[in-house]
Amino acid sequence: MKGEGKVLLVLLCLFLITLSKPDLQVEKGRGFQLKTRLIPRAEMIEFLADGYKEAVADYFWMRVTLTYGDENWRKRADDDDWRYLLKLTDLVAKLNPYFFMPYYFAGVVFPWESRYKEEVIPILERGMKYLPNEWRIPFLIGFIYFYFLDSKKRAAYYIQLASEKRNSPEYLIKLAARLYYEAGEEESALLFLEQMEKSTREPELKKEIRRRIKVLRDILFLKAAVKKYIETTGKEPEDLEDLVRTGIIKKVPEEPYGGRYYYDRKEGRVKTTSELGKRRKGK
Amino acid sequence: MERAIVTEGLTKIYKSGKRQTEAVRDLTLEVKRGEVFGFIGPNGAGKSTTIKMLLSILYPTSGRAWIFGLDARSPDSRKKVGYLPENPRFYDYLSGEEFLRFVGMLAGLSGAKLERKVESLLRYVGIYDARKRKLRKYSKGMIQRIGLAQALMGDPDLIILDEPTSGLDPLGRKLTLDLIRSLRSRGKTIFFSTHILKDVEEIANRVGILYKGKLLKVFSLDEERRGSGDYQIEIENAGIDLLAAAEKLAEPSKKNENRITFIVKEDSLFDFLEIVRDKGGEIVSMARKKRNLEEIFLETIGKG
Amino acid sequence: MRSIIAIFSGTLKEGTRSKLFWGILVFALLLFLSTMVVSELSFAEKEKIIADLGLSLISAFGLIAAVILGTDLIHRDIQNGTIQIILARPVKRWKYVAGKYLGLMAIIGANLFFLTLMLLFVLLVYVGRPCFHLLRSLYTIFLELSLIASIGVFFSTFSTSQLLSSLVTLGLFIIGHSLDILRMSAAKSGRFLGFLLKSLTLIFPDLDFYDIKIKVIHNLPLGGSYYVEILLYSLGYIILILFFSSLIMERREFR
User: Fold this and answer.
1) Cross-chain residue pair A24–C220, CB shorter than 8 Å
2) In whole angstroms, what is the distance from residue C41 CA to residue C49 CA?
3) Which SS3 state, helix, strand or coil, does residue A259 take?
4) Number of CB atoms found within 10 A of residue C188's CB
5) C27-32 contacts: CB < 8 A, separation 24 or more?
6) How close, in Å, is residue B295 to chain C by CA atoms?
7) Distance in angstroms between the alpha carbons of the first and the last residue of chain B
8) Which domain of life is it from (chain A) (predicted)?
9) How far from each other are the two terminal CA atoms of chain A, in whole angstroms?
10) Residue (of C228, C223, C186, C188) closest to C203 by Cα position
11) Which fold has domain B3-225?
């Protein structure tokens, strides 16, 4: 074949490849979504994998991180997707129960980004059994009970457990005590979040937590402003702009999730319009 | 095309790190159509390397070669060429028949024509009865024969054989040499390499001597052997005094019952004949002694 | 053209008469039967388990065949010297490569087809109805293996160790299935390494494209143009790889 013919052939091949690639990637993405939904039964895997449990656990853990790391998946995930991701995480934790990451991932991600909060607790409790020296696991359980499930008593119990572990931060004891005395919710939540921010190394997660910290700080700030407004005017504000007009605050802070802070007259609380950063409904 | 093979400055140099090995150096020769050319040299002289360059199995470092006027690097030059390598190995798992069919297809034959050719070649080399047996079950002699058959596929005008008789029993050797003779009588050109001088002596028209990669000498066997200047004289009934006198002048070579053959130099011829006549001996035969190939070979290499 | 066919049928005969080929097949069949045993462990969806394991086995054995036979084919001809007989004839070297490759793919294709039929038969017995939708997998498995086999052939044109070629080809297969992981690593790595990894993921064929097992087993639909696209993708790479193999063969010398 002459020189030109050869070059043409190579170009033709490259053309074929690049032409078909995009559609194939779309198809692959679809398959990926399906994969996280369809997980073989845990006992089956445990049986089959017997000698290689750790390797299989690693493989599934890789699937978890790849799925979560895929922005497209996060954007389009519905409840079923999250449920299966949780199942997968649970599977990893079952196959390799001494592996810390799945527990941490379960406790930190799911309650915030999905509707599965209570469901995470059994996984974490197993984690406590296998990793008895790890204070972060009972801490996470405590946080979930406190912030999402509104059970201060249980939260306090777990925080106390956490505080008894080696290397746990000192203030946990004080925190447990305070919880038992039912301190105002936002302040304690803020404390929790600040601790979580310190102990998290994942840059993505850290960013998320900082955003939530800002929301809480803003809410606390606005809460104090509202209190002052009530003290000075004797009635509740119509909306937060009232606070600005009366000069109590310079301006309403920007909500980091793109939502809006507003004053709920019915409940008498400062809230935000966006989903995240908001506590579980019902309070 | 008058000339079957032409090479010009064919060279093959192997480089390994800093060392260089010259396998073939500046080889220039011509093989005429219809002749049998014997390419001789000791092992490692570069004979196989040269042959492989002719067939583009190896590429020359420099120089060129042509087969029937076509550049040897083009596959078309091999359309009418048949090749039998040294110590050939073929596809074990094929039967003799299947293998020949395979080679035939590569040579461009097909259909009924191919089948006829396969059959005729199998018979020609005497393998017809074993044609359905797998090649891995063939004896060395049979491999040789099927090898010759595949070389003849496609009715080539030039047949190149690399050490065709090495390792063969006398029967195999005879078959091969007979085959070469018969091919020559049909106008085919044969180019074969060997280190067995006797074979070359028997069938070659022209000879090329290769030593350490260099082509030292190319000559026609017929001419060279003539004109060596010695006579070979066979005498009968030689008495002791005749023998004594004869031995002063000439070398006795063969002895057969009461016949002795002497090698007599040209300038001693007349004296010798006189002695024989005087002493009562009888001359059985007299002929010009042809110098044998071995002598030429050793002499050439000694010089080169 | 005839030369290609000649070498093609020669290769075919070589493959079907090779003990290796039959060994792989028998082994696969035995493991097949064992999938039925394994499926007993599950309480429900036996057919999905059999289908899943069955297809995995077919892929695995196809892979072994593609790697081993692919890296052996041309290598053996060169080692034995039988290639000289062929090259002494007026055959263009690229035709040699093409004929060998086509013969190889015919062998592997037949192997796959037979195993898939076995799987369908087993499922027919178990489930009572024919699961023809599984045949879609045959198509993608075959294409993926064609790609792997071409890589094996590529190495066999110049490597002197069949073991090494096989291991490298297998390694490339694994890399091809790990491109997502490489992409993630590339995003997290330093500039130089990241660039290296990213370019690797762009050049390499993404073998995950061939993985449609989930959809096939659960009888879900595939995108309409998928079949054509995956064919074009495969052809693009295969022709490119065989092209380079031919280039290498063209320049090669033989002892």
Assistant:
1) no
2) 10
3) coil
4) 10
5) C27/C61, C28/C57, C28/C58, C28/C61, C28/C115, C29/C115, C29/C118, C31/C57, C31/C61, C32/C57, C32/C115, C32/C118, C32/C119, C32/C122
6) 33
7) 33
8) Bacteria
9) 79
10) C186
11) Rossmann fold (3.40.50)
Backbone angles phi, psi at A270, to 5 degrees: -85, 130
User: Do β-strands B251-256 and B259-265 pair in parallel, antiparallel, or remain unpaired?
Assistant: antiparallel
Tell me if C14 and B75 make a contact (CB, 8 A cut-off).
Answer: no
CA nearest to B25, candidates B215, B300, B304: B215
CB contact set of B43 (below 8 Å; sequence gap of 6+): B195
State how far the Cα of A94 lies from the Cα of C150, in Å rounded to an integer.
Answer: 41
Q: What is the pTM of this model?
A: 0.70
d(CA C121, CA C135): 12
Contact flag B75-C92 (C-beta cutoff 8 Å):
yes
3-state secondary structure of A117: coil
C3, C81, C86: residue with CB nearest B89: C81
Chain A environment of C211 (Cβ under 8 Å): 28, 31
Mean pLDDT confidence for C174-194: 85
Other beta carbons within 10 angstroms of residue A53's beta carbon come to: 16
Mean pLDDT value across chain B: 86
Query: For chain B, which residues lie within 8 Å of any Cβ of chain C, measuring from their own Cβ?
Result: 52, 55-59, 75-79, 81-83, 85, 88-91, 93-94, 98, 102-103, 105-108, 110, 150, 154, 160
* Closest CA in chain B for residue C81: B89
Residue B128 to residues A27, B113, B150, B165, C79: CA-CA distances in angstroms?
Answer: 59, 17, 13, 22, 29
The domain locations on chain B are 3-225, 229-288
Tokens (6 digits) for B225: 């052997």
Token pair, residue A90, equals 């649970």
Closest by alpha carbon to B158, among B68, B224, B74, B245?
B68
CB spacing of A38 vs C235 below 8 angstroms: no
B229-288: CATH topology:
Alpha-Beta Plaits (3.30.70)
CB-CB under 8 Å, A20 with C215? no
In this prediction the ipTM stands at: 0.82
**Of the partner residues A1, A16, A44, the one whose CB lies closest to the CB of residue C236:** A16
C84–B83: do the CB atoms touch at under 8 Å? Answer: yes
User: What distances in angstroms separate CA A116 from CA A86, A150, A154, A221, B275, one per listed residue?
Assistant: 8, 15, 18, 30, 130
pLDDT band at A274 (very low <50, low <70, confident <90, very high): low
Q: What is the pLDDT of residues C226-237, one digit of tens each?
A: 899 999 999 999
Q: Chains meeting B at 3+ CB pairs closer than 8 A?
A: C
On chain C, the residues whose CB falls within 8 A of the CB of B85 are: 81, 84-85, 88
- Choose, out of A6, A30, A36, the residue to mutate when testing the contact with C (most C CBs < 10 Å): A30
**Domain definitions of chain A by residue range:** 1-132
Query: How is residue B58 written in tokens?
Result: 């190896």
Q: Please tell me which of the candidates C41, C206, C215 has its beta carbon nearest to residue A44.
A: C41
Residues of C in contact with B73 (CB under 8 A): none
- Name every chain A residue with its beta carbon within 8 A of the beta carbon of C40: none
Write out chain A residues lying below 8 Å of C230, CB-based: 20, 24
Among A246-250, B10-14, C62-66, the range scoring the smallest mean pLDDT is: A246-250
